[in-house]
Design goal:
It is a single chain. The protein contains 19 helices and 2 strands. By secondary structure, it is mainly alpha-helical. Strands 1-2 form a two-stranded antiparallel ribbon. A hairpin with an 8-residue loop joins strand 1 and strand 2. Helix 7 runs parallel beside helix 9.
């Protein structure tokens, strides 16, 4: 046990050092080296407002160009002379009201074109994507990054589905495809704010299938710890819970198909340990951000933290949400419900048919442990909406994607309940 704890501590320390080193190293990239591509990005950003829908009238397809302009603005202000403090402050330039239709985009353009000095810090979000944006802007602009994202995300999830098929998890793969479609993952590559989580989900899921089918649980536990660390490093507070729930659902599906008395951990204990390690990684990285910032900057950064937390959970005076609104906003934004009233009715009918199907063709004997675990996981996104109700109300056009885990869990739960010999069941 003690040896295992020391191993996790070492993994955590090494991961934090690598990730912190990455963003500090990116600060050494000069503005001159990035300017041509960054100016091209700024000009392209100004072609659209800060909130643009890829499908007109479909909020689920909305892209947050405000966040993308903010990422680019921070990435532009690299400081090779003070790389550590520059990485912590994450400063950028505001010249007008950034939430105006083209405000943040115009700020970015003028900042890069005229080499304006930064005038506001964003310490609460010194995040990894800035490092990648800097590196990519040595050879491509934002349009090129969007294309790269689209190719890689498609390849990643197509590869995951093919791998599941080859591992005799075809039904589970179909459930995953449905959840991907309903969560609008095909919109994700075209916004920096969304895409990083889905990279992590894809990579961790592939490793989960590879190692889970071979029973390599020690590797998987380490993977969940690293996943939590990397999630907090890259995420802009969007759909962070997916990096835990999707791989965990895959692991449970594998266990259900290949249960053996020789397996050391019950599925419940395995799930708890994986979740705890992911949580330690996520929360630990979040705490380390403030510890490192305090050390590097030589000041108490706690005041930057408390106000942000109270706003996001809906307890501050500037909060805009409430739990009921958070739940409703996210539920009605999932696809195809978000495509219009007719599609919403079809979805409701589909849910009713699914319930009837489960009742009619229910197995005589079911694995109750998996039913309970799938049910709990399906509810976790809604618990997240309630707790982070302000953020889930304001940003529902991307937080709704956390329900990808809910849809996937419902699919796996259905597979557990329904007889595999439905056509020969004898019921009509």
């Amino acid at each position: 046990m003690l040896k295992e704890i020391f191993k996790y501590i070492a993994v955590f320390a090494i991961s934090v050092a690598i990730l912190f080193g990455l963003i500090v190293a990116s600060e050494l990239i000069s503005k001159d080296a990035m300017k041509e591509k960054m100016l091209s990005s700024a000009e392209k950003m100004c072609e659209n407002p800060i909130g643009v829908e890829m499908m007109d009238g479909v909020p689920a397809s909305k892209l947050d160009r405000y966040a993308d302009s903010l990422w680019l603005n921070i990435a532009w202000h690299s400081d090779g002379e003070h790389p550590f403090s520059s990485a912590m402050w994450s400063s950028y330039t505001i010249l007008r009201r950034s939430y105006d239709a083209y405000g943040a985009n115009q700020d970015l353009l003028e900042t890069v074109r005229d080499d304006r000095e930064e005038n506001i810090e964003y310490l609460r979000y010194w995040h990894g994507p800035v490092a990648l944006i800097r590196f990519f802007h040595l050879f491509t602009d934002i349009q090129g990054m969007y294309i790269i994202n689209a190719v890689l995300i498609f390849a990643l999830y197509a590869g995951l589905v093919i791998l599941m098929w080859r591992k005799n998890l075809l039904k589970e793969a179909l459930c995953l495809v449905v959840s991907v479609l309903m969560a609008g993952v095909f919109f994700v590559p075209f916004c920096f704010e969304y895409v990083w989580i889905f990279y992590i989900v894809g990579i961790v899921s592939i490793l989960t299938v590879l190692w889970g089918t071979k029973g390599k649980y020690k590797r998987l536990f380490t993977l969940f710890l690293i996943s939590g660390i990397v999630t907090n490093y890259f995420d802009f507070l969007t759909t962070e819970i997916l990096t835990l729930l999707i791989p965990l659902l895959l692991l449970l599906a594998i266990r259900s198909e290949n249960e053996s008395d020789a397996i050391k951990y019950s599925s419940a204990k395995l799930s708890i340990k994986a979740a705890v390690l992911w949580g330690i990684g996520y929360c630990g990285m979040w705490i380390m951000k403030w510890v490192l910032a305090s050390i590097v900057l030589g000041e108490n950064v706690l005041p930057y933290v408390t106000g942000h937390i109270s706003q996001r959970v809906g307890t501050s005076s500037v909060s805009e949400g409430n739990p009921i609104k958070a739940l409703v906003s996210n539920i009605i934004t999932i696809l195809p419900v978000n495509l219009g009233d007719v599609w919403a009715i079809f979805t409701l009918v589909g849910v009713i048919i699914l319930i009837c199907f489960i009742i009619i063709y229910k197995k005589k004997e079911v694995k109750k442990e998996y039913i309970i675990l799938y049910g709990i996981i399906a509810l976790i996104p809604y618990i997240r909406y309630i707790i982070m109700n302000d953020h889930s109300c304001v940003c529902y056009t991307f937080t709704y994607r956390s329900q990808m885990a809910t849809v996937f869990a419902i699919g796996l739960l259905t597979l557990e309940l329904v007889s595999e010999r439905v056509p020969a069941h004898g019921k009509k």
